[in-house]
Write a structure and sequence with these properties.
This protein is of the alpha+beta class and 213 residues long. It has two domains: 167 residues, no CATH class; 37 residues. 44% of the residues lie in helices and 23% in strands. The strands form three sheets. A four-stranded antiparallel beta sheet has the order 1-2-3-4, covered by helices on one side. Strands 9-8-5-10 form a four-stranded mixed beta sheet. It has a two-stranded antiparallel ribbon with strand order 6-7. Helix 1 runs antiparallel to helix 2.
Length: 213
């Protein structure tokens, strides 16, 4: 009997809602790359805007979901090279699915929706977690069917009072999570404003490389 019976692989292309979303992301990186040629500030922004996604995409392509055929010793394997987390299928009671909408830019959907799992054991505690970024929606659905058990949304789990006690705090307190997220956005904007004012005081040296002076 061949194992695993089902394998799903993540791909960086699937983190975008469409080819238009991918094109917009590439265009944005190109703009930051041009900014790196202008001055130190542009170079720092380009390092963040290009380097961080490039590192994430490199790691993303090695993530897999593997589900064995039912039977003795059957396992669920998740994560980098399907080796980060291993759970016996007969220990799984089901799971909770938390879906968040993808990013938008000027009303255009850029990022694909993100599905996150909490795989729950027979004792009601979390056995494994999955960040579904990069996986095809059909693959995630098939994986849930192969794993078996009862699956429900985080909202439904809260209504029924079956959300695990060790679930992430933002699932247990969604309103607080939204409030803190908004506060973080405002705080980030204020920090960026202060940084810009400081850089403006430094003058051309902060914004232009010497050869542009």
């Amino acid at each position: 009997m061949d194992r695993p019976a089902f394998v799903a692989r993540a791909s960086w292309r699937r983190i975008f809602a469409s080819w238009l979303g991918l094109a917009l992301a590439v265009a944005g990186m190109a703009i930051f790359a041009v900014g790196a040629l202008i001055g130190p500030v542009g170079a720092a922004l380009a390092l963040l805007a290009i380097g961080v996604p490039a590192w994430q995409w490199q790691a993303l392509r090695r993530r897999r979901i593997e589900v064995d055929l039912p039977g003795a010793g059957a396992m669920l394997r998740l994560g980098r090279d399907a080796a980060a987390t291993t759970v016996p299928l007969d220990a799984i009671a089901g799971g909770i699915v938390h879906r968040t909408p993808g990013a938008t830019s000027r009303g255009i959907r850029v990022g694909a929706d993100v599905e996150r799992w909490l795989v729950v054991g027979q004792d009601g505690r979390i056995l494994a977690r999955l960040d579904g970024r990069g996986f095809a929606e059909a693959d995630l659905e098939t994986a849930r069917e192969r794993i078996g058990g009862v699956w429900m949304s985080a909202a439904r789990a809260r209504q029924l009072g079956v959300l695990p006690a060790d679930a992430p705090w933002h699932m247990r307190r969604p309103r607080l999570a939204v409030t803190l997220a908004l506060a973080a956005v405002v705080g980030t904007a204020l920090v960026l404003l202060v940084v810009f004012v400081v850089l403006a005081e430094l003058g051309r040296a902060a914004f232009l490389w010497p050869w542009w002076a």
